[in-house]
Amino acid sequence: MNLPEIDDTYAEAFKTKAAHLLITAATKKLAYIAATEATGFGTSFIGCPAEAGINQYIPPEKTPDNRPGYSIIICQNKTAQVETQLLERIGQCVLTAATTSVFNLLPESDKQTNLGFKLAFFADGYQEKIEKYGKTMYKIPVMSGDFLIEENFGITDAVAGGNLFIMAKTQQSALIAAEAAVNAIEEIPGVITPFPGGIVASGSKVGSKKYEFMHATTNEEYCPTLKNKIPNSKLSDDTNGVYEIVFDGLTEESVIKATKTAIEAIKTIPDVQKISAGNYGGNLGKYKIKLID
Amino acid sequence: MNLPEIDDTYAEAFKTKAAHLLITAATKKLAYIAATEATGFGTSFIGCPAEAGINQYIPPEKTPDNRPGYSIIICQNKTAQVETQLLERIGQCVLTAATTSVFNLLPESDKQTNLGFKLAFFADGYQEKIEKYGKTMYKIPVMSGDFLIEENFGITDAVAGGNLFIMAKTQQSALIAAEAAVNAIEEIPGVITPFPGGIVASGSKVGSKKYEFMHATTNEEYCPTLKNKIPNSKLSDDTNGVYEIVFDGLTEESVIKATKTAIEAIKTIPDVQKISAGNYGGNLGKYKIKLID
Amino acid sequence: MNLPEIDDTYAEAFKTKAAHLLITAATKKLAYIAATEATGFGTSFIGCPAEAGINQYIPPEKTPDNRPGYSIIICQNKTAQVETQLLERIGQCVLTAATTSVFNLLPESDKQTNLGFKLAFFADGYQEKIEKYGKTMYKIPVMSGDFLIEENFGITDAVAGGNLFIMAKTQQSALIAAEAAVNAIEEIPGVITPFPGGIVASGSKVGSKKYEFMHATTNEEYCPTLKNKIPNSKLSDDTNGVYEIVFDGLTEESVIKATKTAIEAIKTIPDVQKISAGNYGGNLGKYKIKLID
Amino acid sequence: MNLPEIDDTYAEAFKTKAAHLLITAATKKLAYIAATEATGFGTSFIGCPAEAGINQYIPPEKTPDNRPGYSIIICQNKTAQVETQLLERIGQCVLTAATTSVFNLLPESDKQTNLGFKLAFFADGYQEKIEKYGKTMYKIPVMSGDFLIEENFGITDAVAGGNLFIMAKTQQSALIAAEAAVNAIEEIPGVITPFPGGIVASGSKVGSKKYEFMHATTNEEYCPTLKNKIPNSKLSDDTNGVYEIVFDGLTEESVIKATKTAIEAIKTIPDVQKISAGNYGGNLGKYKIKLID
User: Does C175 reach chain A within 8 Å, measured CB to CB?
Assistant: First the structure.
């Protein structure tokens, strides 16, 4: 099996703000359902209210209430936007979900938002502030029992836009390599892959050459079906599929680790020809995540 | 097995606007991933940008492109809001998803929005309007190949807020009865259950008795842990869990069918005591969906 | 997209015996768990106790007890072997599974085996023969409640060994085409794809050229990594992956339909080069399922 | 929430033999499909060819080939039976599964069986013995590429029949508590829960009071629907559901840890009344796993 060429380039990543929460439930499946709903419609800042995703499964032994849980990350550009997203996503998609509780995974962040205090108004006066699991929680009576949520949730600086391009002989080879990369990244603490299944089928460039009103348009230099129609294609003759993976992390280190781990995973799939990454000349983003060391 | 009592009441449902789309992909799993992302963060108008959900799996034999697909429904109060949600949710969560195409399931609606035309600007001039599958489609070159989407998508009047309350001896009996009800509803064409897993753990009343700024608060009369603390609990001594299911349908008939089918499903679960529904005295919603005939 | 060439050949299929059962449960997920366990370790007669698989999801509206269910098919060469497999698989994997009931989907078969009567001895004298759902059932008290199973189960003639070979430019293209084919077949009543995920990675020839004790060995003419090492490879230079799908059906018609439907599904995947099928010169099997009408 | 009473009793467990293998594949999903098929029809020695189950997901960083994998355990009473099960289950359900490789997780066991050597005859002379990943492997050319498997696989003494009984106010409370217990156990290295979904709906006693030919029959003292029909029921008036979980482990320590962890998980579910375990007076099994320290 030939290993893919790795471009000597870098992914350009950006500063963002993020919350990191733990959703527990009576069973693993119930926790997953809540986490999935709460992080849906959250692929890209360009047109979604947030970039959001499930980070990891946290087994019962490692959660405050000894129940299975999923950690999630919700990103937006400004702290106030993260706060709004927390209120709406946790209030609508987790408070409403069967048997859930919610815990703060960033208790040491300087910035703490009192999400639990605010959501507790839903109890219409029946809320109780309690100490449990060594934490300050709100208990909210609901039709199915009591909903428990911590009072405060940290918001931190984070890094958005880590990315890799996977070029392969067929669409399907690039796709399965992307899935393998996502499988590898999902084990890294503090990193999410916010796109559907973690994979981007339609990587974009900033702005447009033709339409002023477009903030992002297709990255035509990497489109296989335009290969022979444009002068500047970056694809070789026998490249027929390109998938991108995009990841956000709580720290630059976690994004570097995700990049490295994803590259190792991509190498396990045959017929991948090249691994590259997207950048904008280095002028827009704060972080340059190099592919080669 | 004792059958549950069925309250002689009705669910009060409301007029809304809805789009009904088909997302196909190379495999069933890929179609599901896209449909899930596109309908996430979509439980309730109160705090979500839309009420959205997967309606049905559509097998390859019944789709225009002979690939597996999922039909989804996206609801908002006004046509313009549905249009915005379509642009954002399909543009961010389906155009970006691996191997997907999108088809209009409401071609006979009077109101048609040219979603495909608009999303095609993403192609930055490389889009093509084509006739395929007997339909007018846009072909948008992307990194993974070509993305295909119909030009127009219908928006129709629909019915939101169909609901049932399930009261049981334990939380878990109510929960599994709710899951059985959701399983039954998901086979009905044109109906979605937008909450996480289709189930509502924290059914609400309109407004608040205590906080003017709250649009919806806990339905304390149905909260088991408040049973002995409030004068007006509607729960009997041995009721310890109440789950609600909420469903939106393209027609009143579909919501009536969902109600009937869900009640039959709930009856198959032991230790359910009563089935009821939420209404507001009949003054707010246009539709009264009776539980008994 | 170039469509694959279809070999003018046929799949050679064989007579077998089969049972067809419905497993229902409180929820769709619980029915799926039972059906999966009961049909596991059931890919091929060569080394498994049976060929077995899930046929279809049967929604609550179409089951006798108004609960979600999965139909399964269990095949063996002789009626007595099917009977043994039923006793073991239903007794060990469905009677033990949460909330299940089991129904006969071949009530009109001439051959009926009294599986329910036999399994009812598990009740150690507490079994009851009852009429329910218009059927003769046994009620077996178990720790979780009562287990219900019909008295008799039909065994019928069936057709094993329907198959297709998918040759593609990369392994991954062949694999996703095989998954698409399985997705299409799983909607056909009375057909199963018994291999893991419905897909065969290691299609075999009958017997061995080298080892007398082997009943089946690798089909070297279709092995991409042997292409340049053997004189008689049937693969072209640019074929790098071949997957097979194998299916068993209750009737020849259902296997013909599966073949046709699978071919249509395979055509939707890019970079598939050829579709063929396995046969043994037509001397071994009763049925010849042609690929081209 | 009232915590359940814990019976001052013990689970009686038995010596068995076990193999412990790692199945890797291109993606997590493909590895799961193979592991599921290979461990199906494997709930109980009483009527299945083995007790088998998935132990854990092993992420790419921790596998020899840097691909996602699942560890599985296959148990039988005697070493020779384990060897037969390995040949059949790995040969039929993993060699045939897409993109898989198989590794030995018991390299330090005294007893090693040359499963890889034997399965390699499938290659009909084209097999190669190679050194890879620091291990001695066989490379078997198949239609989808090459299948890799280690030469030797360890077989070890193990412990079967760890168990807990969960008694609750409703069937559904016992069921969800059992699911929570299984979720907790599945994080423990070296332990499997071989029954469907890890849960036993029909716990049995040894032998029969009425039918000499039965090796195991319903445990009537714990059957809720027999409570008022037999003199010796062990269930209180308000117990309506009992589920059992059964687990096998590679060591007594792992079974003790599973017991402890499962009890903690069960305690998180409301309306569970009592936790007990099955034993036979201590005369049959070598191990007594106490519930209270």
Answer: yes
Domain positions in chain B are 5-12+159-290, 17-156
Q: Which two tokens stand for residue D166?
A: 């969960």
d(CA A274, CA A267): 10
Is D5-12+159-290 CATH 3.30.70.520?
Answer: yes
pLDDT digits (tens, 9 = 90+) for B172-196: 999 999 999 999 999 999 999 999 9
Q: Which residue of A has its CA nearest to C175?
A: A172
Q: What type of residue is C134?
A: G
Distance from CA of A174 to the nearest CA of D (A): 12
**DSSP string over B178-226:** HHHHHHHHTTSTTEE--SGGGEESS-EEES-SS-TT-SEEE-GGG-GGG
CB-based contacts of D260, cutoff 8 Å, min separation 6: none
**Min Cα–Cα distance to chain B from D173, Å:** 5
Cross-strand bridge partners of residue D164: D245
Q: Is C264 exposed, middle or buried (0-12, 13-18, 19+ CB in 10 A)?
A: middle
Q: Among C26, C60, C176, whose Cβ lies nearest the Cβ of B26?
A: C176
Q: Is B20 on the interface with C (CB under 8 A)?
A: no
Distance CA C157, CA C17 (A): 5
> B47: which 2 tokens?
């705090």
Q: What value of ipTM does the predicted structure carry?
A: 0.97
Q: Are D244 and D256 in contact (CB under 8 A)?
A: no
Q: What is the mean pLDDT of each run of 10 residues along chain C (293 residues)?
A: 93 97 98 98 94 98 98 98 98 98 98 98 98 98 98 98 97 98 97 98 96 96 97 95 98 98 98 95 88 89
3-state secondary structure at position C186: coil
d(CA D30, CA C166): 18
Non-local (6+) Cβ contacts of A145 within 8 A are A99, B171, B201, B224, B225, B240, B241, D270
User: Could you give the angle at the alpha carbon of C22 between the alpha carbons of C17 and C24, nearest 5°?
Assistant: 155
Cβ <8 Å between B196 and A34: yes
From chain A, the residues in CB contact with B171 under 8 A are 99, 144-145
| Same CATH fold assignment for domains A5-12+159-290 and A17-156 | yes
**CA atoms within a 13 Å half-sphere pointing along the CA-CB vector of C161:** 25
The CATH number for B17-156, chosen from 3.30.450.40, 3.40.50.2300, 3.30.70.520, 1.10.10.10, is 3.30.70.520
Give the Cα separation of C206 and C218 in Å (integer): 9
Tokens coding A63: 């959660």
